[in-house]
Amino acid sequence: MLLFPNAKINLGLDIVSRRPDGYHDIVTVMVPVPWRDILEIVPAKGDVTTLTVTGRKVDCPPEKNLVMKAYRLMADTYQLPPVDIYLRKVIPDGAGLGGGSADAAFTLRALNDMFAPGATDGDLAAMAARLGADCPLFVYNRPMLATGTGTELSPIDIDLTGLTLVIVKPPVSVPTAQAYSRVTPAVPVEPIPEILQSPLTEWQGRLKNDFEPSVFPLHPMIAEIKARLLAMGASYASMSGSGSSVFGLFASDILADTVADTFKGCQTFTATL
User: Fold this and answer.
1) What are the distances in angstroms from CA 248 to CA 38, 133, 204, 224, 271?
2) What is the mean pLDDT of residues 112-117?
């Protein structure tokens, strides 16, 4: 079975409180976008499950990859046979785009389709939540309002059709723990869903990512990318998740070559939504 796990962006990210267990309650809207990995799962040639990763470098051994964790979770639950998994990484890691989470969720979905254990989307989302906070989104793979630690999802209507999306991933990474360490949780003045009902041209300055004030001083390049996207005419620009990628939404077309030339040394993606 051949699949194409996609990335996501965050439209707003409010960190509203710190929980007694040390985690944080957040509010964010996550939207799937068409930057995609390539995932193939086939019956195993041998007696054990294997994972072969090509494309962009992934800094973890195969046995610790979320894809393998997803297989083991599904296999332990439903007694699945071994498979051979081939993953070509296209989405950058450490970018706040959920690439690894998408790979894991798509693995759960593929195994469910291939071996028909009968898991519902709710079952798969519950398993995905055990793998990572972003993972359940990709079981449904539609815009979702995420609350709690990010795993409590409810559908939200948001239509970005016709806009040009530009994503820029600089050659820096932001550890999630580092991003959280400088954040002061607070209840937002204006709820994200309310802001998203406004025209796109009214989002900037209102639709905020609470990680930016802590991340930008440590990584000025990320702040510079956001400023440059706005200078290029983006109606809205923001860091995605805890970074380090930044995206811009444009009402007009932007050539991919122009983006690549403007952000030399960075990984870039451009698409019409």
Assistant:
1) 24, 24, 11, 13, 11
2) 92
Q: What is the pTM of this model?
A: 0.95
Domain co-membership, 119 together with 210: no
Q: Which of 237, 173, 177 is nearest to 10 (CA)?
A: 237
Q: What is the CATH number of the domain that holds 25?
A: 3.30.230.10
* Cβ 168 vs Cβ 225: under 8 Å: yes
Do 134 and 179 fall into the same domain? Answer: no
With contact defined as beta carbons under 8 Å apart, do 210 and 18 qualify?
no
Q: Which of 14, 37, 134, 210 is catalytic?
A: 134
Same-domain check for residues 62 and 143: yes
The torsion of the CA quartet 136, 142, 143, 145, rounded to 10 degrees, works out to -30
Q: 257 is in which domain, residue-wise? A: 164-272
Domain count, the chain: 2
Q: Please determine, for residue 209, whether its predicted confidence score (pLDDT) is greater than 90.
A: yes
For residue 179, pLDDT over 90 is answered with no
CA distance 212 to 31: 19
- Residues 7, 269: Cα–Cα separation, whole Å: 11
Co-location of 103 and 170 in the same domain: no
149 plus 169 within the same structural domain: no
The CA-to-CA distance between both ends of the chain, in Å, stands at 26
Closest by CA to 77, choosing from 112, 114, 101, 104, is 112
8 catalytic residue (yes or no): yes
Q: Give pLDDT, residue 177.
A: 82
